Amino acid sequence: MAKAKAAASRRKSASRIAAAKPPRKAGPSRPASPPKKKPIELYYWPTPNGWKISLMLEECRLPYVMVPVNIGKGEQFTPGFLKISPNNRMPAIVDPDGPGGRPISIFESGAILQYLGRKTGKFYPADERRRAAVDEWLFWQMAGLGPMTGQANHFLNHAKEGNDYARKRYGDEVHRLLGVMNTRLADHDFLAGAYSIADMACWGWVIAASRIVDVDAEFPNVKAWRDRMGKRPAVERGFALGRALREAQNADPKAQEEARKILFGQRART
To answer: Which end of the chain is more exposed for a tag (fewer CB within 10 A), N or C?
Structure first.
């Protein structure tokens, strides 16, 4: 009987102690993981203009998916692509996480490079003086090196015989532009001082120009810059993107002939 009373007393005492204890506070809740952002869609074919954007995306380590646009089959004229790029030219991008968190589509390689530079804060300086230097060489490529190299390649490698004037005209202009670049790179590691979108814009076109002009022999500073950039891991990855697609087309004579019919002699589609 005494033992039972002692046990009851202990239970009452434990109840009073438990009641006196303040309630235990809940620990801090773990913050919810942010929703995973969708990757940028890169509408692309492996050409000097396409490489500009694949290089930039790789350099910035932005998640992206490649959407092939086979320009040799005319896929650049499909209604869906024209909504993104009304000039029926690739590259183009769709960024699901655009300004204000809303999707945005952008065409024209220079505009895409500038957009990605502003978005990431990389390879496109915020300082106006340094940004102006980048813009100078970016637009130098857009207005000069790219179009002139493209025309030289066309008349040298694709046009019929009897275009001697055009071959010399555009070949000479590519040579002149490489000379401008060679002079600039005599005392600069990169075109605008630091590595930037201007270098990414020019690199693929120097690769193309190297098939027209003996860059290694005539323009040593351009060669050193080209090779220095080519060793960057991001450049290697961006340059390799879609290579198998282009190689398969180049290995098929029928595909090459069809591509020539589609790519050359285009007129307005109304």
So the answer is: C
